[in-house]
Specification:
- The chain folds into three domains: 3-180, 3-Layer(aba) Sandwich (D-Maltodextrin-Binding Protein, domain 2); 193-393, MetI-like (MetI-like fold, Orthogonal Bundle); 401-462 and 526-611, Rossmann fold (3-Layer(aba) Sandwich).
- Helices cover 54% and strands 13% of the residues.
- The protein contains 25 helices and 17 strands.
- The strands form four sheets. A six-stranded mixed β-sheet has the order 13-14-15-10-16-17, sandwiched between helices. It has a five-stranded mixed β-sheet with strand order 6-5-7-4-8, sandwiched between helices.
- α9 (193-225) runs antiparallel to α10 and α9 (193-225) packs antiparallel against α15.
């Protein structure tokens, strides 16, 4: 906790006393009680070695940049120096770092604290002005006379036994030892790995609970915003605007300190952190849920109502499940964001990654390495989660129709061909039915039996008849009998409307007929998923419709499909999910209404403006 947070913590009852070299000024005595003085110290000027002859008194600091501890007597002294430009920070170690990096010209600190830094290794010196000594006392909550008397009694005993001077000497020596012992970043991490491990645990706990409760709050606020009752809509809108319009730090201070001071509600740092992250996350998730609900086809609500469902039942059983599925990736992304934003909770003493990094910094007196380690940990956490979310976002559900659109050369066909390893992906992993097909030991041919593929240029076998094209794989690969395979062939030819072509050769067929036969050939293997690689791009316009009709019937029948196409109207009609690709990456993803009606990415909007 920063020095300036000690008074609010004491006043709100978070702590019983403050032992931090606090000077009992008249202003502070109005808010808290002080014990007898337990120590007197001088204020010194810490400077860089090259400035030894430049600063020797407080008067020399006029018009200079000075570092001081926020809320301390040193800040008060600095404010009395004419023209001084103060940099007030929470921790002395931060002030020293400012001095070392030439951001301030001097720092005013207590003599015993300065002693721990005065070593030529870090290039610091001190000037000791001829100033009066400053007293230090223990802060006690106003009116707690019993504790005050007990503290004064203990201080009297320690003074009589000369224990306080002994403590100061030992502390100064410990500080000096820490400064003299330099460690590289790997040594720091290894020595204090348990600190960081604890921080990671609390960070993940904070973030997970923040998102879980944020989802609940967000859903409630979302339903308020969509409600027919005006007052509920107003409350939902007000919540979102207020939470999104105020800094999270302010919200945290109100919840942790404000409620304790005004209402006597004392939350622990963990509880305050979870509440702050939850209400903040809830405001953003409310808008995500609202977009998800509005993205569900209105016909879904009408269909549910026509079956006798009330509005609540229709929303619960029909609309919300679809909306939740659509926004699941966004919820995952919110979790990643919350992991980084949770670092702000460290200001109230929550033991997260940032707090532990500050602890290590104060122990080691290293200004950079502890935070580089923290940055690396945050990166690893968010990178792993982002990759996991990326895999979840590209998950294909049974019976789902995913349509991939984008300009020529955007990588659509390459993406599709990677799904059955006709092209080898250079990185990443592809799972099919719970098995990694990119594993070199995996039998890809067995998987391809379950993945039917229809090519842009048909790729029928020209030396075989239509029936032979359709039956060769079932007979040779699946070991079906000729009779069984031919029966399946006959049924499929009826499905695609070409029963009279079973003895024809490919060169006797039109383009549309060839593509329908190609579809029948893929279906003959009874695949679990169908891959279509621009199935109509090589056809004359009048032949496109007959192929699309077959694909529409497959979609209605519940066939799982991934379709690469330039037919935007078809994509919007049959797709459950639309992926827009450009430059080899998936730029945008959503329902047809979201992508075609309200595209979020500028590149998507530009592409659709040209093709629609």
């Amino acid at each position: 906790m920063g020095f300036d947070g000690l008074l609010p913590a004491l006043q709100s009852g978070r702590v019983d006393m403050v032992i931090s070299g606090m000077t009992p000024t008249d202003e502070r005595k109005k808010s808290i009680d002080f014990s007898d003085t337990y120590y007197k110290s001088k204020q010194v000027i810490m400077i860089r070695n090259e400035d030894k002859d430049k600063y020797s008194t407080m008067a020399d600091l006029e018009n200079e940049k000075i570092g001081v501890q926020k809320g301390s007597i040193q800040e008060t002294i600095g404010q009395g120096i004419p023209g001084a430009k103060l940099t007030a920070l929470d921790k002395i170690s931060d002030i020293v770092l400012q001095l070392q990096t030439n951001r301030v010209n001097a720092a005013i600190v207590e003599d015993t604290v300065a002693a721990g830094y005065l070593d030529d290794v870090i290039g610091l010196s001190a000037a000791i002005p001829d100033e009066e000594q400053v007293e230090a006392a223990i802060g006690i909550r106003k009116g707690n006379t019993e504790l005050l008397n007990a503290v004064n009694g203990t201080l009297e005993r320690l003074k009589n036994e000369n224990k306080i001077d002994q403590m100061v000497t030992e502390a100064s020596q410990l500080m000096a030892d820490k400064v003299n012992k330099t460690q590289n970043i790997f040594e720091v991490f290894w020595q204090y790995k348990s600190f960081y491990a604890t921080g990671v645990g609390y960070t993940l706990l904070l973030s997970a609970l923040g998102v879980i409760f944020g989802v609940i709050i967000g859903l409630i606020i979302c339903l308020f915003r969509l409600h027919d009752v005006a007052i509920l809509r107003w409350l939902g809108t007000a919540y979102v605007e207020v939470i999104r319009g105020t800094p999270m730090l302010v919200q945290l201070m109100i919840i942790y300190y404000g409620l304790a001071l005004t209402l006597g509600i004392n939350f622990t740092p963990l509880q305050a952190g979870i509440i702050t992250l939850s209400i903040n996350s809830g405001a953003y998730l409310a808008e995500i849920f609202r977009a998800g609900i509005q993205g569900v086809d209105r016909g879904q609500l009408e269909a549910a109502r026509s079956l006798g469902m009330g509005r609540g039942a229709a929303m619960r059983f029909i609309i919300l499940p679809q909306a939740f599925k659509a926004v699941l990736p966004a919820i995952g992304n919110e979790f990643v964001t919350i992991i980084k934003e949770s670092s702000i909770i460290s200001v109230i003493g929550m033991v997260d990654i940032m707090y532990q990094a500050s602890v290590v910094k104060n122990i080691t007196y290293q200004g950079m390495n502890p935070f580089l380690i923290a940055a690396a940990i945050y990166f690893v956490l968010t990178f792993i989660l982002s990759k996991l979310l990326g895999r979840l976002e590209r998950k294909l559900s049974k019976g789902e129709v995913v349509v991939v659109i984008g300009p020529s050369g955007s990588g659509k066909s390459t993406f599709l061909r990677c799904l059955n390893l006709l092209e080898q992906p250079t990185s990443g992993e592809i799972d099919f039915e719970g098995v990694s097909i990119t594993d070199p030991k995996h039998n890809i041919n067995a998987t391809r039996e379950k993945m039917g593929m229809v090519f842009q240029h048909f790729n029928l076998f020209p030396h075989k008849t239509v029936q032979q094209n359709i039956t060769i794989a079932p007979i040779k690969v699946k070991k079906q009998s000729a009779q069984e395979a031919e029966q399946i062939c006959e049924d499929l030819l009826k499905t695609v409307g070409l029963s009279d072509k079973k003895d024809a050769y490919p060169n006797q067929l039109s383009g549309g007929q060839k593509q329908r036969i190609a579809i029948a050939r893929a279906l003959a293997m009874q695949p679990h998923v169908m891959l279509f690689d621009e199935p109509t791009s090589a056809l004359d316009p009048e032949m496109v419709g007959e192929v699309l009709d077959v694909m529409k019937r497959l979609a209605v029948g519940g066939m799982t499909m991934v379709i690469v196409t330039h037919e935007m109207g078809f994509a919007r009609e049959v797709g459950d999910r639309i992926l827009f690709m450009d430059g080899g990456v998936i730029v945008e993803e959503g329902t047809p209404d979201e992508v075609f009606g309200q595209p979020k990415h500028a590149r998507t909007r530009d592409f659709l403006a040209k093709v629609l």
